[in-house]
Amino acid sequence: MEALSFSDWAALAVALIGAGLFGGLIAGLFGVGGGTVMVPALFYAFELLGVGGESNLHVAIGSSLLTIVATSWRSLAAHRAHGAVDETVLRTWTPWVAFGALIGAGIAGMTSMANLGWVYGVCLILVAAQMALTPDGWKLAGDLPTGWGRRVIATMIGGLSAMMGIGGGSLGGMTMTLFGRPIHQAVATASGFGFAIGLAATLGFVLFGWGAPGRPPLSLGYVNVPAAITLGLLTTAVAPFGARLAHRLDKTVLRRAFAVYLTLAAVAVLIKAL
Fold first, then answer.
1. Cβ-contact 269, 121 below 8 angstroms
2. Can you give the residue range of the structural domain that contains 85?
3. Domain count of the chain?
4. What is the C-alpha to C-alpha distance for residues 129 and 244, in angstroms, rounded to an integer?
5. What's phi and psi for 183, nearest 5 deg?
6. Who's near 177: CB < 8 A, 6+ residues apart?
7. Residue at 184 is within a domain
8. How does pLDDT run across 141-199, given as a tens digit for each residue?
9. What is this structure's pTM?
10. Is residue 2 assigned to a domain?
11. What would the DSSP string read from start to end of 175-193?
């Protein structure tokens, strides 16, 4: 790989700064850890600048997961200040979410870029369809499952979220709303899932990506350290503003905006990965 020129480094820096600022806003607003912004932004930046190779999507996902650790913690604190977090759900679901995230990181490490792109894109489109098309008040059951139902669903949330580089908001928030929880409580509680996902999955992406070919420079396994630090600092600073904005918006507007954004992010990654 040829050394990057100054203009290439400048373009990459601008892309990281823009993704970090917008990603932090999205993180607080939707409880997704900003991964739906950062994964496409990093992936496109690496590809367009000729950085790395066949591991670019893996590195974009792994780098996003590291930023989720700090961002989700800040978002969770902001939502707690509004009293929106269900602490019982957070305590009982989080261990299984973390377990699933570690499994998901291992599966991602053995998956090609094209197939990982399919997982990312299709899952986001399904979540977007649920958010946009499901009538207000429609639900699968009156409350969240317990016992083995909780263990299986929480593990799936963690696993798929890790493979997509997103926090808990997309799948965790969707699950909570399908089981009758208000959207604001779902977003707030799912931000806590994001912290567990980010921590467990980042460890997995470092380990399973160790020595993998086609990675951008300065990557530790499937985590690009400069990108993760830049995005982490910016998203952590901006996330509380998004969380405060979320509590001022109508829940229907929040759902529709979330759906549109997820669809755009999914299509962007699918086009580039395939």
1. yes
2. 11-273
3. 1
4. 26
5. -60, -40
6. 139, 183, 186
7. yes
8. 778 888 899 999 999 999 999 998 887 767 888 788 888 888 788 888 888 898 899 99
9. 0.81
10. no
11. HHHHTT--HHHHHHHHHHH
